[in-house]
């Protein structure tokens, strides 16, 4: 009897143990799956392309016809992607929302018309600046080329110097040709000094300007030799003088029309609404008319609706390529530094800053800047 009872109890205990082991085996894979899901999600998040917010603001960010993005800021992001092996994608974003979307994590970074400033730095981090510029002023060329400007130009030391550079050789060559031709060619170069020297000046002037009326011409060997020398020398002299006068005219336009911020006072000024340039004008107590973008402001300037348009100098330099009657004044103020917008305490920030500094030091970056902003080495 004892043996029989022991056998039944042992069998029951073994059956219960088997059921427990079966339940454990059933739930273990499920637990492993649930434990693996967060890790898989984390790995997937790390491998997903970083969303980089962009907004079209030439020359920093521009959109091509095929939907691709290019520009100074985009080229910097491309350089960072290659240097740090970052996978990213561009997401068109309203500039007013860029900082907020980077702050809440919707965007991993952003490139836009937001210069480095203390207010936004409180909620996000800016990278090292990839471009340093300033606020510039666009004005109409016709407003500058008035009677007063022409009088100033004609009486400027540079113009008088170039005039002397032209007339001096004319007097010398004119006197020499008279000395050589007065005896053999008295009909064209009169023997009397006053009339003969004047005829020599006349001949030297028309020869230098390549007019060559043909009313006077040397007939002696030495006279013709001097004439040949003067023809070649006059071509070089005229080319040098023309280049110097053009450079002086351009310099006078750029430096004299708008020399200080005070020159904006009393003018009808325009700017882009909500921009850093608009904030600077408010600080300076200069009333400005708001426009939606750079092109709208430049169109108004070309139509004579405003007297000056104030905005980021690099953006104006790019936009003015399509306006022959407008130019960028020499006045610039309020330095503007542009960097990437990053989340606060981003662990990649140090690596990004080092990569930016390395890119800025490269010859390739100088070529990129020259592509978008010729003659601007910043």
From TrEMBL:
It is found in: Membrane. One of its GO terms (molecular function) is ligand-gated monoatomic ion channel activity. GO terms for cellular component: membrane. It is a multi-pass membrane protein. Residues 49-375 form the Ionotropic glutamate receptor C-terminal domain. InterPro entries: Ionotropic_Glu_rcpt, Iontro_rcpt_C, K_chnl_dom, Solute-binding_3/MltF_N. The chain crosses the membrane at residues 158-180, 192-213, 225-249. Gene3D superfamilies: 1.10.287.70, Periplasmic binding protein-like II. Its main location: membrane. Keywords: Glycoprotein, Ion channel, Ion transport, Membrane, Receptor, Transmembrane, Transmembrane helix, Transport. Residues 49-376 form the Solute-binding protein family 3/N-terminal domain. This is ABC-type amino acid transport substrate-binding protein.
């Amino acid at each position: 009897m004892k043996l029989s009872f022991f056998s039944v109890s042992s069998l029951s205990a073994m059956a219960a143990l088997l059921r427990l082991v079966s339940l454990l085996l059933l739930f273990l894979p499920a637990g492993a799956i649930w434990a693996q899901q967060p890790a898989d999600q984390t790995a997937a998040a790390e491998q997903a392309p970083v969303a980089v917010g962009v907004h079209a603001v030439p020359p920093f960010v521009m959109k091509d016809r095929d939907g691709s993005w290019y520009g100074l800021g985009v080229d910097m992001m491309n350089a960072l992607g290659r240097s740090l092996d970052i996978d990213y994608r561009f997401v068109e974003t309203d500039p007013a929302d860029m900082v907020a979307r980077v702050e809440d994590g919707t965007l991993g970074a952003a490139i836009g018309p937001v210069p480095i400033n203390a207010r936004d730095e409180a909620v996000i981090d800016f990278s090292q600046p990839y471009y340093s510029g300033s606020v510039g002023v666009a004005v109409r060329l016709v407003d500058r080329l008035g009677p007063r400007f022409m009088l100033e130009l004609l009486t400027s030391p540079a113009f008088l110097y170039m005039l002397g550079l032209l007339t001096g050789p004319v007097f010398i060559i004119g006197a020499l040709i008279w000395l050589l031709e007065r005896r053999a060619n008295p009909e064209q170069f009169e023997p009397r000094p006053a009339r003969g020297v004047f005829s020599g000046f006349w001949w030297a002037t028309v020869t230098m300007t390549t007019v060559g009326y043909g009313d006077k011409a040397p007939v002696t060997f030495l006279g013709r030799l001097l004439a040949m020398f003067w023809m070649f020398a006059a071509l070089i002299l005229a080319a040098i003088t023309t280049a110097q006068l053009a450079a002086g005219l351009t310099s006078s336009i750029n430096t004299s029309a708008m020399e200080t911020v005070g020159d904006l006072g009393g003018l009808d000024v325009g700017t882009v609404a909500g921009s850093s340039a608009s904030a600077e004008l408010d600080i300076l107590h200069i009333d400005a008319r708001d426009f939606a973008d750079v092109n709208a402001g430049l169109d108004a300037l070309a139509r004579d609706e405003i007297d000056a348009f104030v905005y980021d100098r690099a953006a104006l330099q790019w936009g003015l390529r399509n306006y022959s009657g407008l130019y960028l004044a020499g006045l610039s103020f309020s330095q503007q530094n542009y960097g990437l917008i990053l989340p606060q305490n981003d662990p990649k920030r140090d690596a990004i800053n080092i990569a930016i500094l390395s890119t800025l030091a490269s010859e390739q970056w100088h070529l990129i800047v020259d592509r978008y902003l010729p003659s601007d080495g910043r």
